[in-house]
Design a protein that fits this description.
The complex is a heterodimer. Chain A is mainly α. Helix content of chain A is 45%, strand content 4%. Chain A has a two-stranded antiparallel sheet with strand order 1-2. Chain A is globular, with a radius of gyration of 12 Å. Classes of the chains: A mainly alpha, B alpha/beta.
Chain lengths: 89, 580
């Protein structure tokens, strides 16, 4: 587990406190009942602030799992799905 | 606080048993992260409370205010933004920004502002209300370039200023200070257009966090500290009195000491608002009295009481001052230009806020004054505030006379020409009564504190009563110093709260309060909601002396009559109106 994965897991735990660490890593909008629209907005806001990034609104429909967000935030730009993350200065 | 910290804080369990508290967060936008930040800040303010934040509907602030039904222990928090005055002042509606549209926007904002003011004033009767007026920048709807204010923009600001002025005239409203918000949250970093469009939440996270912190402080409504102890040399004035003499010390521009004059002026302002001031100085007492007699001094010599001037340790002076004031170190600020003196006092009184006066640094002194206002500020000045210093002086005089006379207390109390003015009813608008209950520690039946809405709820009970007592004797008035609150049920009189100001000890006012209640209500017994606390020793002593121990839990009139000492007060009764 990288430091970045740990930070992302912490973001997930703050929004979905009932999930275990294992459940967090497998979490998706389908598998987590608490993952509603409010949770989505909160999760994205927490991640944006924690990682100092701005996530494109058009990418949001694809970012519906821990794994998708992990890949999206990955330092390797080619690995990211969607339009790409913009890192704030 | 960032959002992650806020969420993690909220995920921590609340220690049981927790009290319930309800906050109505009323706004016209999606409360989203403001609600999260506010909940987190309130968790910090009220760590033992389970706080539920209720919100209303999007885009309908006025309707939300109409629908809110505050209950006991609730506070209404209203966050107004420009779009609540007219949706065209936001970016989610596309109602038109043509120059010909703007006068209509102004007029509609004026009408809506009047409606909101009316609705908030209605709510004030039943609950405390905290209000934030628009914090976001106005949209670029005016024809002028950004650097030039347009008449219509000024009109909109006037409308909001009028709303704020109207609300702030009522002490039941806690209005957020936009000047302080401007300092903490730069205007250009408040609006988040993307969040506004995607989720109806108009704030950046940073602004939401700052606004929530300020709103939580308004909701918490921390009681101010009660007193300030100041050094004299290089603090109240510039210069060392013992070296340069009475005429050498300065507090004006000519003496290159203007900020010391500003400090004096500030202390005079505090004194006029009932803050206790005292001096602690290693100095020659005679010289100090001469210096304080200078006609150009900006505060009265009498504002400083007591004045502890000697060569001994400052902590001894502070101890004597606290004893005279009869308040705890946590309620006092100590100021001295010497870091060593400050450290010495802080070592003896770790609960006391001890501050080094930043002599020679005008900006730092300015900042200190602002900090002091934060610690000592109050919404309004009561009659008791105006006479507090005088009554402490009177109490001190009486305390010093009592043992010197060498006669029985009866003989002495017979001569002090004491008058107690009782007011019996259910007047919930009596702010002083609630203030006394919430800040009195020593003679306090149980240490229970009440929110304004708790207070309103308790006094709306048809069986409730509220007794207040004001006291005056030949040494001067003490103002309103005792409160008894409870209810009469059958032949039992239940006392839920009972406090007596420490300034009024040793006058048998507490006995007279019980005697008066026995005579007025003629109960078979008085039942006390008594609880020993770490600080209500004087109350425990009272019951021990009267009953040989705590009330268990009631007192019958025959027992009271047999044990009560002789009382010499002249009694006056005044009308007390029932809460509406």
């Amino acid at each position: 587990m990288s430091e970045q994965d740990d930070r992302l897991a912490r973001c997930f735990a703050s929004v979905f406190p009932a999930l275990t660490p294992e459940e967090i890593r497998a979490a998706s909008a389908e598998s987590v009942t608490a993952w509603d629209s409010l949770a989505s907005v909160t999760l994205v806001a927490v991640i944006q602030q924690e990682f100092s990034v701005e996530i494109d609104v058009l990418d949001l429909p694809e970012l519906t799992s821990f794994e998708a967000l992990r890949t999206y935030l990955s330092p390797s730009r080619d690995a990211r799905p969607g339009r790409g993350v913009r890192f704030n200065p | 606080m960032n959002l992650l910290d806020a969420l993690e804080l909220l995920n921590r369990p609340i220690p049981e048993p927790a009290s319930e508290q309800g906050i109505f967060l009323e706004c016209g936008f999606t409360p989203l992260h403001l609600k999260t930040f506010l909940a987190a800040q309130l968790r910090l303010c009220f760590p033992k409370d389970r706080i539920e934040i209720k919100t209303g509907l999007y885009g309908d602030l006025a309707g939300n205010l109409e629908r809110v039904q505050p209950s006991s222990r609730s506070v209404v928090c209203v966050v107004v933004e420009w779009a609540d005055l007219d949706p065209r002042l936001g970016i989610r509606g596309l109602g038109g920004w043509r120059s010909t549209d703007v006068p209509g926007i102004v007029e509609s904002a004026r009408r809506q502002s009047e409606r909101l003011t009316h609705l908030m004033k209605q709510l004030m009767d039943s609950t405390p209300i905290c209000v934030s007026t628009p914090t976001l920048p106005l949209p670029p709807i005016f024809t002028t370039q950004g650097g030039q204010a347009h008449h219509h923009e000024c009109q909109l600001r006037e409308i909001v200023a009028s709303l704020a002025t109207s609300l702030s005239a009522d002490r039941r409203v806690r209005l957020l200070n936009l000047q302080r918000l401007d300092e903490l949250s730069p205007l250009g970093r408040r609006f988040d257009a993307k969040a506004e469009i995607t989720s109806g939440f108009p704030y950046t996270l940073e602004h939401a966090s700052t606004l929530a912190e300020m709103l939580a402080a308004l909701i918490q409504d921390m009681p101010p500290k009660k007193g300030l102890i100041t050094d004299l040399d290089d603090t109240l004035w510039a210069g060392i009195l013992g070296e340069i003499g009475v005429e050498g010390i300065a507090w004006d521009m000519a003496g290159h000491a203007q900020m010391h004059g500003v400090y004096q002026q500030f202390l005079a302002s505090l004194a006029s608002a009932g803050v206790l001031l005292a001096a602690a100085s290693r100095n020659d007492p005679a010289l100090v009295e001469q210096a304080l007699g200078r006609s150009d001094l900006l505060l009265s010599r009498d504002n400083l009481f007591p004045r502890e001037v000697h060569r001994g340790p400052k902590s001894e002076s502070v101890e004597h001052i606290l004893d005279t004031w009869n308040i705890g170190p946590e309620d006092v600020i100590f100021i001295d230009d010497s870091p060593m003196e400050v450290a010495e006092v802080h070592a003896v009184f770790p609960q006391m806020e001890c501050v080094v006066f930043p002599k020679g640094d005008d900006q730092a002194i300015w900042n200190l004054l602002r900090r002091l206002r934060d610690c000592l500020g109050k919404v309004s000045v009561s009659p008791e505030d105006e006479i507090r210093q005088r009554s402490i002086r009177a109490a001190s005089t009486m305390k010093s006379i009592l043992p010197q006379r060498g006669r029985g207390a009866d003989d002495f109390l017979r001569t002090v020409e004491a008058t107690i003015t009782f007011s019996l009813g259910t007047d919930a608008s009596d702010d002083r009564a609630l203030e006394l209950i919430n800040k009195t520690n020593q003679f306090n039946l149980n240490g229970k504190r009440f929110s304004h809405s708790d207070w309103l709820g308790l006094l709306q009970d048809p069986a409730a009563f509220l007794l207040t007592a004001s006291y005056e004797d030949k040494f001067g008035p003490l103002g309103k110093i005792a409160v008894v609150m409870g209810k009469m049920e059958g032949r039992k009189l239940h006392v839920n709260s009972w406090v007596l100001s420490c300034r009024a000890f040793s006058r048998r006012i507490e006995h007279q309060c019980l005697k008066y209640l026995f005579e007025k209500f003629d109960p078979e017994e008085m039942v006390f909601d008594y609880e020993a606390t770490p600080r209500n020793g004087p109350l425990q002593d009272f019951f021990a002396e009267l009953l040989g121990g705590p009330p268990s839990p009631s007192v019958r009139k025959a027992v009271f009559d047999a044990k009560a000492p002789a009382l010499f007060h002249r009694l006056v009764e005044v009308a007390n109106v029932r809460a509406g």
